[in-house]
Specification:
5 strands; Nuclear Transport Factor 2, Chain: A; alpha+beta
């Protein structure tokens, strides 16, 4: 069984087979908080899709480079926000987050429904509320 350790170079892309999608999502979010785009790159499939339900909408990401660019821009504009919870849904997870607050008021929770295949994120769909993401996941 391969065990990826921090700083293991290319070997870090091989995940421990016992690592769950929930654990992968949490590690990815932690990397986002640190601004560690190289670690995030390892989690994303080269053809990852990230959108708000309409892949043809402006701003939708159609590959890893677009997704990383979007994350970099978002982080520089307003930061990442807080990870609230990650809920297992088989090959998908619901990542619940609270964006950075504006004007001192806590921001409303939002969520991404993230789909994994072979330890890589292949799609992220953003929902304005965790309830909508949980419903889309069949939870």
């Amino acid at each position: 069984m391969a065990n990826a350790s921090p700083g293991a170079g290319h070997d870090a892309t091989i995940r421990d087979v016992s690592e769950t999608n929930v654990q992968l999502a949490r590690r990815g979010y932690e990397a986002a908080l640190r601004g560690d785009l190289e670690t995030i790159r390892e989690f994303l499939d080269p053809e990852v899709k990230w959108h708000g339900g309409d892949l043809s909408a402006p701003g939708a990401c159609h590959n890893r480079e677009q997704a990383l660019d979007f994350m970099c821009q978002a982080r520089s504009r307003r930061g990442v926000g807080e990870l609230v919870d990650v809920v297992d849904a088989g090959d998908r997870v619901v990542v619940m987050m609270r964006p950075p607050s504006l004007e001192g008021e806590p921001a409303a929770l939002s969520a991404n429904l993230t789909t994994f295949r072979d330890g890589k994120v292949i799609e992220m769909v953003h929902y304005p509320s965790p309830e909508e993401a949980l419903a889309a996941a069949g939870i």
